[in-house]
Design a protein that fits this description.
This protein is of the alpha+beta class and about 270 residues long. The protein has 6 helices and 15 strands.
């Protein structure tokens, strides 16, 4: 069953995909914005105030204060930042105040809404119900082969004592293997990570000169490698390229597109 479900709206098209099985449990909110929420990233050339207004609207729909909205300046890397209470609100209205050079954030602080931005890359979600720690990561192919999923899990363990066997995770909407074709310059970095799941992650295209890459499945494999139980990993089937009526796709729209947002936060009780 698809874990990311469009929230029903009575008077307008839905702008939010909720990670249904997480939302509302342990004070969590988790999900992904739809195209209808508008562009929520400041780096693609839209008027900053329009982007800020879109961010405010999403946060308001979630029932959160915009002061909690906290984001990073993503660089397709693998650095994990530990978000403290003093970091709340960084980047919400300006790239200058965002957490620098970061593609994953973790925290055990309540009332901080972590946010990251995408237009084909893979959103990764982590939650440890024992310690209350949460994590959010952005995994393009570069971050994936740098094992950002593993690094995030390890950082949650070292910082908060989160045990992978207790954790749950989710892989959100992203470009699917159906639409993500790569050449040897990418494949050579992916191949060393593969185990018995090679056929599920890399498939030759019809001409045999390129490969269809399943980044979502590869990140799931890395989560399992790091100790998360397969039964505790949710996997979205939404492909950003196939469903450009609902989702932005950098590849399908040849770079001229907005960005969606993953979010994860835990309210104090």
């Amino acid at each position: 069953m698809e874990p990311f479900v469009l929230r029903e709206e009575a008077d307008r098209p839905s702008a939010l995909f909720l990670l249904k099985c997480w939302s509302g449990t342990d004070g969590l909110t988790a999900g992904f914005t739809a195209r209808q929420a508008g562009n929520v990233a400041l780096h693609v050339g839209d008027a900053p105030q329009d982007v800020i207004s879109n961010r405010e609207a999403v946060t308001r729909q979630l029932g959160w204060d915009f002061a909690a909205f906290t984001c990073a300046e993503q660089v397709h890397g693998s650095d994990v930042y530990v978000v403290a209470a003093k970091d709340a609100g960084r980047g919400r209205t300006s790239r200058d105040t965002a957490i620098a050079n970061t593609d994953a954030m973790i925290t055990n602080e309540p009332d901080i809404l972590l946010a990251m931005f995408y237009a084909d890359c893979v959103p990764l979600y982590f939650h440890d119900p024992v310690t209350g720690a949460i994590g959010l990561a952005h995994a393009g192919w570069k971050g994936t082969v740098a094992e950002i999923a593993v690094r995030t899990i390890e950082k949650m363990r070292s910082e908060y004592g989160a045990k992978p066997e207790n954790m749950r995770a989710a892989v959100g909407p992203a470009i699917g293997e159906c639409c993500y074709e790569v050449d040897e310059s990418v494949v050579k970095h992916v191949r060393p990570l593969l185990d018995t799941a090679v056929g599920e992650i890399l498939k030759p295209n019809e001409k045999g000169d390129r490969a269809q890459l399943n980044l979502k499945h590869l990140n799931r494999q890395l989560m399992i490698k790091a100790g998360i139980m397969p039964s505790r990993i949710e996997m979205s089937s939404w492909c950003t390229s196939c469903h450009s009526e609902l989702l932005f796709s950098h590849r399908k729209e040849k770079g001229a597109t907005g960005r969606m947002m993953s979010w994860l936060g835990r309210k104090s009780r």
